[in-house]
Design goal:
The chain is of the alpha/beta class. 38% of the residues lie in helices and 20% in strands. It has 6 helices and 7 strands, in the order βααββαβαβαβαβ. The termini are far apart.
């Protein structure tokens, strides 16, 4: 079976403490619930959660939707985005099945990065490692005062902004992520072709502004 890996890189630094981190938890739960109702996603999508604060941690390795459990998330510390980019690249290198002359490997991963601040580590070193792997769609989401210019260097044109981290905004974002994963699952299952850019994903709702 060819998997469609989906990596969520979530900022769990101190500035996410309180309401924001609770809404992220709710959002991940909502995302999983929505994808479990999609037969295409159930067939192909595998979900991983990587958090970054003073360190980057693989909270959930790539897991099929039926077995996925939302991890405990707490907010504290700094914003080691570079470490998260290195970690997801290392995970992809070790865990993903590569295409060979006789077998098709996993589909190119989708990566969603959410941050509400600026990196506190050497994120360019992490970006260098990240760029050594093959990715499908990479989407950056700047929440509140998140640094969109850093995200643009990672995700290119696929950067969006949420002006608030309240329930409504976060719910809209995770709903859009689930719709994006669903559309890619359907594309790989029905057409054998993966989505390659933001323009091929469902349009984000008005609360989610595309950064240009």
């Amino acid at each position: 079976m060819r998997r469609l890996p989906v990596f969520l890189l979530l900022d769990t630094s101190g500035s996410m403490f309180g309401e924001p981190i609770e809404q992220v938890k709710n959002g991940v739960q909502m995302l999983v619930s929505a994808l479990r109702q999609d037969p295409y996603a159930l067939e192909t999508a595998f979900l991983s959660v990587i958090t970054f604060d003073s360190n980057a941690t693989e909270k959930v390795p790539l897991t099929e939707l039926t077995a996925f459990q939302v991890p405990a998330l707490t907010a504290q510390g700094a914003t080691s985005l570079g470490d998260a980019l290195t970690l997801v690249a290392d995970v992809a290198s070790k865990q993903l099945a590569k295409t060979t002359s006789t077998t098709k490997g996993d589909w190119k991963p989708m990566v969603f990065i959410m941050t509400d601040g600026a990196p506190t580590d050497d994120w360019k070193k992490g970006l260098g490692r990240f760029q050594q792997e093959k990715w499908g769609v990479v989407v950056g989401c700047a929440v509140n005062k998140g640094d969109a210019t850093v995200l643009q260097q990672i995700a290119g044109e696929a950067v969006v902004r949420l002006d608030t981290s309240d329930h409504s905004a976060m719910a809209k974002f995770f709903k859009w992520v689930s719709a994006s994963v669903s559309s890619n699952s359907k594309a790989v299952e029905t057409a054998g072709k993966e989505v390659e850019g933001l323009d091929q994903l469902p349009p984000p709702p008005p609360e989610i502004k595309v950064v240009v």
